[in-house]
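Weekly modeling sync, notes
Attendees: S.R. (lead), two postdocs, one rotation student

Agenda item 3: backlog of single-chain predictions. S.R. asked that every request posted to the team notebook include the full sequence so nobody has to chase files. The rotation student volunteered to paste the first one in as an example of the format we agreed on. Action items at the bottom.

Example entry:
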Amino acid sequence: MPDTFTIDILRRLAVPLLALLLGGCSTLDYYAHLGQGQWQLLQAREPVERLLQDPQTTPELARRLALSQQARDFASASLRLPDNRSYRLYADLKRPFVVWNVFATPEFSLDPELHCFPIAGCVAYRGYYQQGRARGAAALLRQQGLDTYIGGVEAYSTLGWFDDPLLNSMLRWDDERLVAVIFHELAHQQFYLPGDTAFNESFATFVEREGLRQWHASRGETPPASDDHQRQQFVELVLASRERLRLLYARDLPAAAMRSAKQAEFARLRHDYHRLRQREWGGQGRYDAWIDAPLNNAKLLPFGLYDQWVPAFAALFAREGRDWPAFYAAVAALGQLPAEQRHAQLTTLQGDD
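Predicted structure, as returned to the notebook:
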């Protein structure tokens, strides 16, 4: 089972399933599977209000659901996020994840196998409602010589096409993370740019973080201690390893030598992690499960995407007077620009932060 850090990244990268259903060239069986999975999810929904009034609802579930509705109210009233029935419903899917995403790369490349769809654009993974199907798909890809990785996801957005429910998988997190997920997924409904994962996830992550700050301020609460420094150190460690692998794969080496050097790099990553864990984290490693499990190119794919442009969006929010509607309009205007021009403006904003 993936560790909590990996799940946190993966849930930010969960592909909207409706976009997959409208995709072009894949097997009929795959789309039938997606259609059935989405239909089962929709059928499992029930109004949160009804559950809160039901004496059979456990006290802890009632508490979490009540908190979710407070966050949902705040999201629309204060953050000006879409006001609809999303997260006013609850679905217990009787499993720990709603979908499992399969990532794949060539053996000596960090370029993902892309899957392109009309609404979502091109994404670096394929989602499956059944873990067995995800494992089967990954096995077929490995037979083709690809590196693969499977990650469970506890939430995804249909971008407003359906009323997305709260899921039992979302309640595995603490209160802070539950509120964050609601803000993040509603941000995807507010704006989504097909084919630019870094833009979409950085935008939603900024809304999530600023939203949490305002949420705690509105309740007179002191935000819980953040683990951002340790998290950032870990991400930087992985990104440094990925960059060394990129340089390695650019070399003209025989396959056997390339394979040996690749494994040496993963051994170095583990060594650097354990040294960092001991020297700076007091021997407490939140990411031990991730680092000690098998490593390959595909497992490194999600890193560096979800917060790449967060400082740029923070600068844009400040530029727009911290006014949410003005900020969303500015984000939409950025999204209309050609990719090269959009990235240039984001880079400028990043420098202004």
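Discussion: group reviewed the output briefly. The longest strand covers residues 99-105.
Action items: rotation student to repeat for the remaining queue; S.R. to check formatting next week.
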